[in-house]
Design goal:
The protein has one domain: Phosphoribosyl-aminoimidazole Synthetase, Chain A, domain 2 (Alpha-Beta Complex), CATH 3.90.650.10. It is 30% helix and 23% strand. The chain contains twelve helices and twelve strands. Helix 9 packs antiparallel against helix 12. The two termini are 22 Å apart.
């Protein structure tokens, strides 16, 4: 079974073609190439301002957190799930310039038979702690409340989601205008930034269905039948060799915690970058669904060349070894080491890299943009060239 068929058999898709087909006729907002939909200022009707609203979840990462918590009694793993769901919203919004005065609301659906109140408490407390941490970087986020619903008939374990809202001047927007001659600065998803408490494996919140089933052992299928979709063929369920508490390639971090690394937020970095280099930044891409091909949803008549990538961190090498997934597919499913990229004037690249490294985040120029008749992505990894022309 090839990689894409295997993912489809697990009920997931890197490209989400059916979703894009379903929404293709929806209004795309004021700026079609903006990373998030930008609305007129419906709140105050000021033509110089705009509104941005976003919703997302931690996805199936919660299912892995559930198993890890049951195996270890480590409640703290749920803190990462709260951060995952928050960051998948605020970092998307940051890519259009919304980096302050953000309103946040939660929607949590749980199966109360297996998820007790102490888990909900840990998630809520983690949210308030994240807000406090961002305030240290002059980023203001306000929690507006939310809903926690007991929906055991539709949720096996737990689904953690947030909705975010911001209002900002249109002059502060970043609308993707990716053109010939720009360079691509990539910012690492792994390591330990100055605002993180532990090493981050870099997984983010995409590809977790694949990572979970490809890395971890079949023993969990019998032990935690509530952790997976029983429509999946049994040979694709927990088909890896690893136990959650096995040592990982990163010293002092077990495999479960490595895969469950909280999604790193780039909010502090983006805020500093915009303060100094706003006029030099012509595009920002959060490499979430679609991973290294994500940018191709926001370009026209260009060839994107990524030929000087950051080193692939240990987590993604482990996933590839366990799954035997082709490297080409890996770069379309997982961020593979950087989850944020900026398309910038070449003379601003080093300054952006310096800001990133001051925050403890590795960064480098990984490629450039060329004029092209159509849209094409060329990616080079370990001397092998991969071409992507279907998005």
């Amino acid at each position: 079974m090839n990689d894409s068929h295997k993912y489809a058999a697990r009920g997931v898709s890197a490209t989400k073609d059916d979703v894009h087909q379903a929404i293709k006729y929806l209004d795309k907002g004021l700026y079609e190439k903006a990373f998030c939909k930008v609305l007129p200022d419906l709140v105050a009707n000021d033509p110089d301002w705009c509104n941005i609203m976003h919703a997302d979840t931690a996805g199936t990462k919660g299912s892995l957190a559930y198993m890890y918590w049951k195996e270890t009694n480590d409640l703290s793993v749920w803190r990462g799930i709260a951060q995952d769901a928050i960051v998948m919203n605020v970092d998307d919004m940051a890519c259009v310039g919304a980096v302050d005065n953000i309103i946040l609301s939660s929607t949590i659906g749980r199966n109360a038979s297996v998820i007790p109140g102490e888990v909900i408490s840990e998630i809520i407390n983690a949210c308030t702690d994240f807000i406090s941490k961002m305030k240290e970087f002059d980023i203001n986020i306000e929690l507006a409340g939310g809903e926690t619903a007991d929906v055991g008939d539709v949720v096996r374990t737990i689904d953690v989601g947030y909705t975010t809202f911001a209002r900002l001047p249109r002059k502060n927007l970043v609308v993707n205008n990716i053109r010939n001659g720009q360079v691509i600065v990539a910012f690492a998803s792994y390591g330990k930034s100055v605002y993180e408490d532990a090493y981050n494996g870099g997984t983010g919140s995409n590809g977790l269905t694949s990572a979970r089933h490809d890395v971890f052992s079949k023993v969990y299928a019998d032990k935690y039948p509530e952790s997976y979709d029983h429509h999946i063929a049994q040979d694709l369920v927990y088909a890896g060799s690893q136990l959650l508490t096995d040592p990982s390639p990163v010293e002092g971090v077990d495999v479960g915690k490595l895969v469950l690394s909280p999604t790193r937020t780039y909010l502090p970095l983006i805020k500093l970058a915009l303060d100094k280099y706003r006029d030099n930044i012509h595009g920002m891409i959060h490499c979430s669904g679609g991973a290294q091909t994500k940018v191709m949803k926001f370009v026209e008549n260009v060839k994107i060349v990524k030929d000087q990538l950051l080193d692939v961190p240990p987590l993604f090498s482990l996933i590839q070894e366990e799954s035997k997934t082709s490297w080409k597919e890996m770069f379309q499913v997982f961020n593979m080491g950087h989850r944020l990229e900026m398309y910038v004037d070449e003379n601003a690249a080093q300054g952006l890299i310096d800001i990133s490294k001051q925050l403890g985040i590795d960064a480098q120029v990984i490629g450039h943009v060329e004029k092209f008749d159509g849209e094409l992505l060329e990616l080079v990894h370990e001397g092998n060239k991969y071409i992507y022309d279907q998005f």
